[in-house]
Amino acid sequence: MIGNSISRAFTAPTLGAFWLYWNPVYGFILARFCYRPIRRRLPDSIAVVSTFAVSGFFLHDLLLWPARLAAGKRPLFPVVTLAFVVVALLVIATDALEVDMHALRPATRAAIHLLCLALAFAASILASRFPW
Q1: Which of 28, 56, 57, 115 has a CA 20 to 30 Å removed from the CA of 34?
Q2: Cβ atoms of 79 and 61 closer than 8 Å
Q3: At residue 76, what are phi and psi to the nearest 5 degrees?
């Protein structure tokens, strides 16, 4: 089942579909309790970016902070949060440009999805190196 979810995600025809398939449980929870309530009051693009930021921070970055604080260290730069915001912007841009990869081979679609993830995380890691 997990293998099918991963395969389905990486061969998705759009970047937005990748994220719908990537983690269906988180996706359902985030859609119901984050995206939809925000979308009722604000534009879709803000709801998308906010939802990705919430996921990155509360479901990824924040999980490491208690252990670091207990060890007397400062919290880490929110690398996943920033990377997810970059991904959200890529999702919005590719949707607006109507980018559809149906015609591409599954391996090519997987490579494009991996490239998007790599670029987002590279940008975030680079940003974490600046003295904020």
Answers
A1: 115
A2: yes
A3: -75, 155
DSSP strands (E only) in the chain: none
- Does 91 or 76 have the greater pLDDT score? 91
Distance between CA 121 and CA 44 in Å, rounded? 23
In angstroms, the CA 95 to CA 39 distance is: 17
CA dist., res. 69 & res. 50, Å (int): 26
Structural domain tally of the chain? Answer: 1
Contact 55/30 with Cβ under 8 angstroms?
yes
Determine the structural domain holding residue 103 and report its residue range. Answer: 2-128
Structure tokens at 105: 């081979």
Token duo for residue 124: 């975030």
d(CA 23, CA 28): 9
Write the DSSP symbol of residue 63.
G
Give the pLDDT confidence of 88-121 residue by residue, as tens digits.
999 999 999 999 999 999 999 999 999 999 999 9
